[in-house]
Amino acid sequence: MNQEIRQLEPQELWNKFADLNAVPRPSKKEERVIAFMKNFGENLGLDTVIDAVGNVIIKKPATPGMENRTTVVMQSHLDMVHQKNNDTVFDFDTQGIEMYVDGDWVRAKGTTLGADNGLGVATIMAVLESKTIEHPAIEALFTIDEETGMTGAKGLKGGLLTGGILLNLDTEEDDEIGVGCAGGIDVTATRIYNEEETPEFKIGYKIQVKGLQGGHSGMQIHEGLGNANKIMNRLLFDGFEHYGLRISEIDGGSLRNAIPRESTAIVAIDAVKEDHFKMQIAELGVAIKNEFKTTEPDLEILVEPFEIPEKIMDLGIQEGVTRALYAAHNGVYRMSADIPDLVETSNNIARVIIKNGNIKISCLTRSSLESGKDDLANTLRATFELTGCEVAFSGDYPGWAPNMDSKILKVLAPLYEELNGEKPHVAACHAGLECGILGQNYPGMDMISFGPTIKGAHSPDERAQISSAQKYWKFVLEILKHIPKA
Asked: What are the chain's domains?
């Protein structure tokens, strides 16, 4: 199957991507891909180092005639988001990604593709391996754990790199040159609650929200996509008053940086109000599906009889947590007043787990302003604390402030226009890139971000555009030729 991918142009890029995608590489379990990359560098006879946290650095001398150019750090992250459809049988810990060509797109069979950031990694590998590409001295930086905390970038010590320019290959629109990004913080609400025996007059039901697109909780947060956790909460809200609904458990969402696609709740209702329950849930489901008919055409809300749960939540806690989830902000909080169409601050209610006397609600809050990030994080904290939850902040990482006077930007922008006959879109993005973190230990480094077009990142609908990869590859080669003198 992946042999079809290896025939695509440019073959040097797609072959490296296929090699990489044969290696399981979940965040925080990167041992195999670190070893793979170490062997790759050493087999090329290049200086290869694994730092204290697991980042891999491979250094390649300049090609003849390019020795006087500024050393370039080419950077991408090794890990990938693991998401699959419910009906897909796949073990991310042991299997390589199964890819196929769909017109002008490369997709995976029911899973994330790993183009984020695998195409960036493959690009750097192809440059390192090439004997014909002109380039200055290169320091290839492959970071770990970008998707679940950016601990690789955070752990990179100063002094390991000497490059004056950093090319981050983690942008997902090929007409965009990134000059800034949002920072982020994890907001996690927890609480212990008492469980009660389910009364005899109750019957069990399972409610499922599924079929949502999901996607990147930064890059796609403004698209009006459905959040399975918020939709589920609407279905459960005020259920006790109407038909004695009591929650036994909820399992919604998955990763902090992925918009939740699915949620499942096990509930008990009054047996005598079963018909009323089914009618009202059906009516609400139709209304919700109508709201999302454009952005989420495949949304499903399934309600079916289920075995009676043995335990249910304390009613007071149930009422409090459903109200807190209703009040908690999800989506765009503020647009930038300075950069047109840029989301400044947002939140993703990423994960809701209620089971066995424990509540855990996980959010990822992003902002290009530290003050905005703190404001929304405290808004969420107050919301959840009002219902008795303990709220913890973790994984805080800084944004990357735009520098419109960047010397490498002044190289890339006219070069893009010369190659493509149009100006690039120079912008900051609402995703979390590693540039802001790397800049803390390398404050003098001139940074820029770009990449090929990738759609649906962080979801099983992830796909990479073949024609865009060809356009991007030409751009990379020209950039390396035009790196300014040191």
From this structure: 2-181+399-481 (3.40.630.10), 185-395 (3.30.70.360)
